[in-house]
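Q: Hi! First time asking for a complex rather than a single chain. Here are the components, and I think there are three in total. Is that enough to go on?
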Amino acid sequence: MKRHLFTIGLIASFVLSAFAHYSGLFSATVQFAISCLSIIFVAGFLGKATESVAHYAGQRLGGFLNATFGNAAELIIAIFLVKDGLFDIVKASITGSIIGNLLLVLGLSLFVGGLKYKEQHFNVKLASHNGSLMLLAVIALLIPAAFAKSLTTSETMNLSILVAVILIIAYLLWLLFSMVTHKNELSDEAIEHGEPQWSKGMSILFLFLATVMVAVQSEWLVSTLEVFSHQFGLSELFVGAFLIAIVGNAAEHSAAILLARKNKIGAAVEIAVGSSLQIALFVAPVLVIISLIFGKTMDMVFTTFELVAIGVAAIIAKSISQDGSTNWYEGVLLLVVYIILGIAFYLV
Amino acid sequence: MKRHLFTIGLIASFVLSAFAHYSGLFSATVQFAISCLSIIFVAGFLGKATESVAHYAGQRLGGFLNATFGNAAELIIAIFLVKDGLFDIVKASITGSIIGNLLLVLGLSLFVGGLKYKEQHFNVKLASHNGSLMLLAVIALLIPAAFAKSLTTSETMNLSILVAVILIIAYLLWLLFSMVTHKNELSDEAIEHGEPQWSKGMSILFLFLATVMVAVQSEWLVSTLEVFSHQFGLSELFVGAFLIAIVGNAAEHSAAILLARKNKIGAAVEIAVGSSLQIALFVAPVLVIISLIFGKTMDMVFTTFELVAIGVAAIIAKSISQDGSTNWYEGVLLLVVYIILGIAFYLV
Amino acid sequence: MKRHLFTIGLIASFVLSAFAHYSGLFSATVQFAISCLSIIFVAGFLGKATESVAHYAGQRLGGFLNATFGNAAELIIAIFLVKDGLFDIVKASITGSIIGNLLLVLGLSLFVGGLKYKEQHFNVKLASHNGSLMLLAVIALLIPAAFAKSLTTSETMNLSILVAVILIIAYLLWLLFSMVTHKNELSDEAIEHGEPQWSKGMSILFLFLATVMVAVQSEWLVSTLEVFSHQFGLSELFVGAFLIAIVGNAAEHSAAILLARKNKIGAAVEIAVGSSLQIALFVAPVLVIISLIFGKTMDMVFTTFELVAIGVAAIIAKSISQDGSTNWYEGVLLLVVYIILGIAFYLV
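A: Yes, that's all I need. Here is the structure of the assembled complex.
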């Protein structure tokens, strides 16, 4: 009964939102409200699908699939921005996506999970590797920025392209390491589950479908946000790094928080941290390579504000997650840093 | 017998110091010598009182009370400075207090305790949380400084006030977390003590009395220090960040070292680290809020030198304390960083 | 039989290389090829000698001796450079030696060892102390650079000399701590070895002889490298920090990798990390003191590029080694950072 109501709400709100978007009959405010309602439903659908896949595939692979589908949407949006040469917005949204996952998604997951469970645990070896990979991401963004002042434009481009290629190789080797050669060392202990709602094939199909719906719905919401932000006089940097990132990561948010509430904190961490690592070590470098095809190269030189934001996010997330044990106050710490960064980006 | 001699010395030196301060009959050098003698006695008294309270209340709460009483004195002095608009001296003394506790007090405690015991242990979960909170303190000071250059004065003020409010909330939630919801997880193992000297009520009364005496005596000593520093041509930054901080933290010094010698390293760490966290996450933000009342807002933008000092102190203290095990060489490492910072601040 | 062939190859290639160097009859390219062949043999000889000494003296002392002998050669070369006032090249080669050991030697050891063994372990307490000492090294280099802009030249010199003296004291106390007072706490578990090739006295003699041969051979190779680098238009910074450092650390490379392959990862880490700590905390400060004797003081102010390189190397190496467990991917991470730094230094 409850399940049927959910299905009806999901389809109805999605169709209504599509109509509002394409007809243009409603005001921006009404469009925004409908989109928000719909995103709650599709995000809930995605969360269920992820959980079901995690049941069959294990927490880590389930989390990885969720992060990847979530980022696929962002990658597609970013490619269009790169094509138009809007490199500053691309970098702002990469920054926002990294800190949004590390601070907001992870912070909310730990907080919400910690309110229910006194302490939650995940694989400590994975936590340690995640921390080192976050440092690599920060280093890979810091070095081009630190050296760019003494380099010519073409030297900066060469440095960016080479760093991009190296990061892609490092990320692929990480997948080889974590999914193949050291799969068992990094997995969480098996947790007893009840029977899942759907079959294995159905779960994967629904995961795919839900991700597409979230991606499409996110884009509709983003388009109403742009109207909003102009009305309220918000800067491009703030909109790109916070508003778009929050909405664009709706998939990660809903799934991670749902999993944390079910004490599957390992999968929640994999979604939040895994997603930000994928953005930094794979999506960003791939965008640099893709920009080559469009004939106008995007460099990897981020602004000082962006570097500070990514750096502090990585360091506090590493510090909090490195013991493989989490609680509600660690969630608070992450959220506090996110709010402080949000205020600073809003004012600047 | 020995106890009576101590009581006589305590009262006699304190009265003599008061007379010297208010009569103005003695030269600055003599006043300084009397103050130093008196501070040794009152600091010893405070150490005994803290230890006695720690016996009844546990190492952590005892340490917390000691840190709080110690910082109450500093807060009062700082409020007068804020009222007079001497913001640079306030920030220098905040910096000095943070690094003095993290490097000098903690360093001496580990060193002195480590000479007696090969290895000393304290709660590793607490160490981990302390480390994350130290990072939050550094981040909260770094972000206003990093963004201030691109902000107007009023935007910087708004950022400072908002960050201050957020830090106070985060600190209060930390007390809720560490004293209420996760009290047992963060406590040290019970250690067998002998019978304490005083009853529970007497211990708290003496802790309060001793703290007031230390605060008053510190102020008298600081006033002679100012005459001294002018004679020797020391910079305001050096006097504020090192001389005043060392004397003003006499309470923390004496208590922490005494506890380390008695193998109660958990309480010593709580005093040193807890005190610096309280300064960074509570005292400094409260001063910003209080400055609003006086009509002239103090921002949270620290100088590069101050940020470097706080940053390196937090990072080395975090690195050393994170395994919950300490030894004499870790004390040396902290003291070495303190000395290097002292030389740099003296020369600059 | 195999052993005799090795001895013949060792002596023949060394003599040929000496002849090529002093006669000047061959072209730079031929000299370079002969030197490379010879360095493979002498490095192999050194590896065997280190391993044999490690058998008698334990992994840590064996590693320490190897690192010290290896650095003695570099110290001697650097003294000649200091005498000639070539301070920039000295600092570049110090930088190169630190990051070469932390990233290249350690990275290759973990990678090569990790291909053979799924996980390798070394003393986790030692890892923790190594990490803290690396931070001290970074802090000691950061502070003079951060304060230098506000200091006069003579004040910078005073700061440099005082920091140098403090670091030397800290390093000597570290030896006291790690070799005397806490020797057992920091040692690796005994590993069963087969019978070593040589007696105890013979092993030490060969270790000494092999180190001298590597040092001499390195210098010959460096002299051909200089010709090379001019031909290919490489910058002094790149040659000093990368080419010379790689060749000059041949001793550490060969020994560490050989030990990692034999699952003696504790000795490999001691060589790589111990060597870089010795460079930062002992060799560099000693060079500052020695420069005083020559009448022209070398300061401790490193360039931003050098600080970034040393800082990121220390942070990633600390992050990777702190759990006392290593695998092939951790080697990849270190090598990736080394390659990125190499490209940046090459372009700048």
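A: The mean pLDDT of chain A is 86. Let me know if you'd like any chain examined more closely.
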